[in-house]
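## tool: complex_structure
## caller: assistant
## args:
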Amino acid sequence: MSMLAALLAALPLPMVQAQPEAPPPQSPGEIVAAAPLSEWRSIEARDLLVIDLAPAGRGKQRRVVIQLVPAPYSTGWVDNIRRLASAHWWDGTAVVRVQDNYVVQWGDPTEKKPLPAGIRSVPESAYVTPLDAIGATQPTIEGRDLSERAGQAARLSEIAIRDTVTPRAPQGWHERDSYAEWVELIGGWPIAVSGDAATIPHCYGMVGVGRNLSPDTGSGAELYAVIGQAPRHLDRNIAIVGRVVAGMEHLSGLTRGTGDLGFYKRASERTPIVRVRLASELPARERPRFEYLSTEGEAFARYVAERANRRDAFFNVPAGGVDICNLPVPVRAVAP
Amino acid sequence: MSMLAALLAALPLPMVQAQPEAPPPQSPGEIVAAAPLSEWRSIEARDLLVIDLAPAGRGKQRRVVIQLVPAPYSTGWVDNIRRLASAHWWDGTAVVRVQDNYVVQWGDPTEKKPLPAGIRSVPESAYVTPLDAIGATQPTIEGRDLSERAGQAARLSEIAIRDTVTPRAPQGWHERDSYAEWVELIGGWPIAVSGDAATIPHCYGMVGVGRNLSPDTGSGAELYAVIGQAPRHLDRNIAIVGRVVAGMEHLSGLTRGTGDLGFYKRASERTPIVRVRLASELPARERPRFEYLSTEGEAFARYVAERANRRDAFFNVPAGGVDICNLPVPVRAVAP
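## result:
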């Protein structure tokens, strides 16, 4: 039998064909709700960017909270963003652009506001992060290392075949997609790997740094959040600096701009930004607190497997796979 | 050298490494704008569902136009939808649910409104369509037919390798993804193929039929539009009956519901639907007219290749691939 056929034979059966005695399937949401406290990780206050938009009708508060990416990802831009927040630079700026199925963007509408001292220019090389800096390892199939250079073609083909089976709990979920050699989740974040470097993919709710044409890489003062189908063609071309963990609906539900690229034509259409602060710079009692579900735990592995093969009552046919951008890392608010 | 290595060697180089003498690259939008009239296809009036929502502030009109899927896809549901429109059944109904990064859903809030005569129940088997009914053929690589049963594993691996090179113009773009053995575009619509059957994938803007638990398949009276990352796990589990071709922003920009699954808690939050008509049942002068870009033409093939490898000025690194849901078929309004 061929190497490929042997691989197929060696792989576990899809979960949907698993033991009939198995307990009734839980939905991904039920798995997350039942995850033990030990698998939740606290997000540091210095990693939370709190944006207060002007209240909506009837004074309804609109707060958006962004979790900044941890080192070693995009550290230059994240440093700039902390400086901008500490300088209260965004206070009085606005949401200037809402392009349907693409991004919501905010910053200084005049594009003339001076930046605070210490804002640095970050090189394009920082759009990606070396694998060894994040502890990522080449995927293995059935324990066989696939990293050797000459094995590139074989690795892709084997990963492709692996994709046709249920991701296995508790570890080892990898999937290749149209944009990367493989994708997985490490340390609470999705990564997309090409060659020896990783980048955080442009999934729904991810926050990136607006920029002009190369070699400009953006300062971090102009930010956007993804509000539609993941624009993965931006991966490795723009810095991802965070993800929206609360209040996404206050951005995604905004009226779309009617100018080019979804920019608002009139200043009156913009949503004012009242203030932006790091949670660590808010009075202790005002600090929002959040936790994310560890991507290395048992609950997350089961969440991935069920997202890839929904067996809860509504579903007739399991997908047999899942896109990295359909695996949002569960995040929850916790009482201060 | 191995069969796989031989394949790699035989494949064309990525376009980004193509002749330096090539003309300056066009963006996908520029390619579409320059497409000849001969590659645009008119959409029949009977295939356009025109939804007029209650005007927004200052009497601003909010019209959403949906292109119904052509036979042989979902024909039972589409027949029902034409009956419902002809009976003016949706007049006075409402948008009842807006769940962020998922769907906007509309229908009868009371769920008690009697359906018109002639509405049929459609079997679950109609969620997919046999390949031979739509003229789809198994993908071939370098002219070699990969359809033979025994070749399944090899086919997947070869398609995976093909995915690592630029899709070739003018024909033959196929890509496998996490949800289907391969995907492509035929007759103006994306298809996702598993086994010998195809389904239209749940991409942004696609319109599906709300249903209860199996064996219910929905009548077509309760519809939803996808407003976030493609929920491809719904493929083969729900009927897709169309796509929004105009006015998407009037759905995607609605305030999210705060009830379970994004349903509105109060009736006052719902967006009233004033009337729904087939364009063919509107007075000739009121009929909106649309065209789509042929997915079999040269312009579309170039559009796919450029979407997969952006070379316009903003981009530093081409993706080398593209997700089927990042290949919206270009549709344009034309003067009545």
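## assistant note: Chain B touches chain A through 62 residues (CB under 8 Å). Residues 1-19, 141-171 of chain B have pLDDT under 50 and may be disordered. Handing back to user.
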